[in-house]
Write a structure and sequence with these properties.
4 copies of one chain form a homotetramer. Chain A is of the alpha/beta class and 308 residues long. Chain A contains 6 helices and 17 strands. The relative contact order of chain A is 0.16. Chains in contact: A-B, A-C, A-D, B-C, B-D, C-D. Chains A and B meet through strand 1 and strand 17 of A and strand 1 and strand 17 of B.
């Protein structure tokens, strides 16, 4: 049966140091479509192929990072049910009225054990991808920059990884797909969770720094587009992190770089499809190099330590 | 939430005219792994990347075509529930005992309005893909022939398309993703249905010939592998149908050819991900050319008429 | 040693039925750069990656087809030498003064045995590809339409194939790379000739229709770009011929369509590198299907018969 | 006109520390075809697509590195001419008799100013690629490991870069394609030279260590095959250097690793075609990062310093 419950990452609100510079970056380099501003001055963006009004909101602030991460759920009944389930689990929830965010219905907001603020919502205006739903063309032409297909997932860091993992699995219906164990062979240092057939919709990493963002990730269609993303990053002199490379975890092929505020982003392609009858894949601590960087099989200081 | 209910196409039993020749074809040209024979003389195959014991069974017979199409469901409770739902809907079901098919649990069998025989099952031995579930490698080497990732879907033909469509949507939890309308603009001549985030797990086409198979489809990872499939088809002088090409429907890129018994198969890549908040895509009758053959925008006699 | 003598196809002058429509087509769909018009009203174009001022000239006329085909030669001394060699071989030559064609030096013009008009030239203004020659970027961004790398070769038809073949091999220093034999097993019905390490810089096909053009061909970088060309062709409703496909001859992967005047063009990728110590590859007449259409292994009426 | 004079890298003799281990490596991981041993115990290899008997010879020794680098020339007359030209230029030459190396004609051997030993030869037995020269198939199936198309070029280091550069350009007919300048803006620290339409057939780097090898390079067909090479390198736990990445110089996409003896190899794809009317591309010293590593735009200690 098609996805029910929590469906996918829906939007996220990113703090940027200079809004004008960031609007330019996300439009020209990332190739997102700028959908406008709201009364609070927040800038809204969607990927060209996305159907909903926006998936990225930028808010100017003094410190980079992510304000909150939102998932779209199947319908209003699901939203109500999940709100009740969260509260029954002991998680305080808050309602953000419809319209507080442009084109978005009521949001149920809560804070996870790792300190991250999450939202669930059921309604966002569907603006379409320009192709329509009657005998559509197969491609969207006139793309610029990296031009990913959609906001795909986030990797976020915080101390109580077990708490966030359990919340997502037990209450929000996520499945554990892959995990890296600590040296003790028991404790999870990182988990990849899916609410779909994607290898992951979110990843948590144990880190003493609560409520931090490792990266927001956008989907590309092919390995050739990962190369193009790398080339675009270079011609625009974007601050590079690492790539092109393949991850052992999820098998995805990817490149990481930093937006003008130092928020890390990923543009990736591939990986296997997850079905819930698949056993969890476990990486012992000593295999972390190959897990993260399948080709070099070594960890990278910046990749491990920089978060916003 | 991850897939529940009906998860994916699980296995199908194909009638072949010469078993030895077909075992050779599916091993050397398709690149499947031959898992052995059962006491009835049926040959079992899996794609290298698949985790379950088999997805294709060959049975020697006088006439090509497909005996039955099976979907794997989430668990035994789901199997029981769907069996009850089918009967409540007026569809007679039959239980095939565990073990009748190697390594497979009990199957619930029913016949659809289009005359096709379907099965649902919850259990099949997981033999793995050779990579294991601890710090696995990212690729399976030593592949031969076309070597697809998995059995992906089928396109099947029969008269009561509405009946099968309604059964799959109302009882089995499938979603309607795309449809082609008849000249009257109302009647469906073809429907693409998904039980996952795939653009389709099965497609039905209206055809006076009940219980026929248009093609069984296998997934490839990239457009480059579609080219390789086409080259493999040529070097083995496999009977070609059409491709490489792109479909307007689902946007998948693909090639079609015939196995030694004349059963059509497809090896394809790509297409968008389906979420249940997406509107149905509709193709008017006059757009059928571009819907099926996006590049040539014309239909092809053989593709429209040959079924087994 | 690097290419000497005749180096590569340099420019060609194509007759189009409607200049405005064609300028739009070659700019928006083909993605060439329009370099302007001359006093005669001819429109000039270059591919983005090409360094010289232009490779395609359009001249409005009542009948589609190609006025002439020009090769760039190594230097003026080579030009003089080839002029002398042609005349010594019995081929009348004519000098077209520098500047008759914008930004182009003196041209030596002659007519081949198949009736085609050829030119040789040594000088054309180098305008560059926008990247410069100091620490250049690796990609040109902002491409539109199909956007090929360069004009690559032509396939042209005429009766005295042997005459044109011998002229190109004996006088112009081309190498015979591949050939298709007639049913008699002796006569060449088609030849692929190279003046470089390309599998061909020109192909001649025996045809009672003298001085005709089968196609002008442009190079793409990858098979993925061939798919994109096919998609671009569809979204612009360009008149399709055939593809994506692979040729047995040269192994190139390609797609063919028609410009608004009915002139066939090809956008292709790949093929092996030719070195002059390679034996000629010969295709018997009965293998012509696989030679031309490697996957379908069958000839196509329109592809065989339509020329301009 | 097709390539004349020096045509391409023809063979090289690599010193390996353990012959058995190296034969296994070059067969299973690199995917070359082992052609046998000679009376001296040297192992011979060819890439599957190459037509000549071999392009790589392994000789067991106590120290890794390359014994000599050989280019194939157009014919015996060219060989004689180049021998004379070398001697006229003041370079001592030596004749190695036909048969000293299996299946190879007489070789003209000389030492370049950078201390590297080079050979020129005109004859090597053509064993073919298994496809034949009559109506051949377009692909070679049953490949294993990385399976490159051909030996493509070498990057070698030594002190008198100017001397080797001038020898290759003035006597051997190579063209200077790209260069990196020293901080003084005048001195070449590295040069890329071509004897064909390849962006380079050899590269020299100024280095106080005479007669050293940076890498031997093999050609792949696509960026997807570069990813596959990277995956193969990982599954065999080959000692990695760096990649996948793109070079600013030549634009090639590539990956570098070390054979079991520590000799670095490259498997790459792409880059532009060189014609001798192209201006030389120059990289100022401060752009060396982007020149070598286009995406990270930073140099890498190991890549700069490790040679054999």
């Amino acid at each position: 049966m098609a996805i029910s419950g929590v469906m996918r990452p829906g939007h996220c609100q990113l703090r940027v140091l200079n809004l004008d510079e960031s609007v330019k970056f996300y439009t020209e380099v990332m190739g997102l479509k700028h959908m406008g501003f709201d009364a609070q001055g927040r800038a809204y963006f969607k990927c060209l192929d996305e159907l909903d009004h926006h998936s990225l909101i930028l808010r100017q602030a003094d410190k980079a990072g992510m304000d909150f991460y939102a998932f779209k759920v199947r319908d209003k009944a699901t939203l109500e049910q999940l709100d009740a389930d969260l509260r029954a689990y002991g998680v305080a929830t808050e309602r953000i009225p419809a319209g507080e965010m442009l084109e978005t219905g009521e949001r149920v907001r809560f804070t996870s054990p790792t300190g991250h603020v999450f939202e669930l919502y059921a309604e966002k205006t569907m603006v379409g991808n320009g192709l329509g739903f009657e005998a559509p063309e197969a491609i969207i032409d006139g793309r610029r920059g990296i031009s990913p297909i959609r906001l795909d997932h986030w990797q976020i860091h915080g101390p109580d990884l077990d708490g966030s993992r359990d919340l997502f699995v037990k209450v929000l219906g996520f499945s554990l797909v892959e995990r890296i164990k600590a040296e003790d062979g028991v404790t999870d240092v990182a988990v990849w969770l899916s609410c779909s057939t994607k290898a992951h919709d979110i990843a948590f990493v144990r880190d003493e720094r609560a409520n931090t963002l490792h990266h927001a990730s956008y989907l590309l269609g092919t390995w050739e587009q990962v190369l193009k993303a790398a080339d675009i990053i270079t011609i625009h002199r974007v601050s590079m992190d690492i790539g092109p490379l393949r991850h052992g975890i999820t098998r995805g092929t990817t490149i990481y770089a930093f937006d003008p505020s130092g928020n890390r982003f990923e543009t990736f392609c591939g990986g296997y499809d997850f079905y819930p009858d698949m056993p969890v894949i476990t990486w012992p601590f000593e295999e972390m190099g190959r897990a993260v960087f399948y080709h070099t099989r070594q960890l990278n200081e910046r990749f491990l330590t920089v978060v916003t």
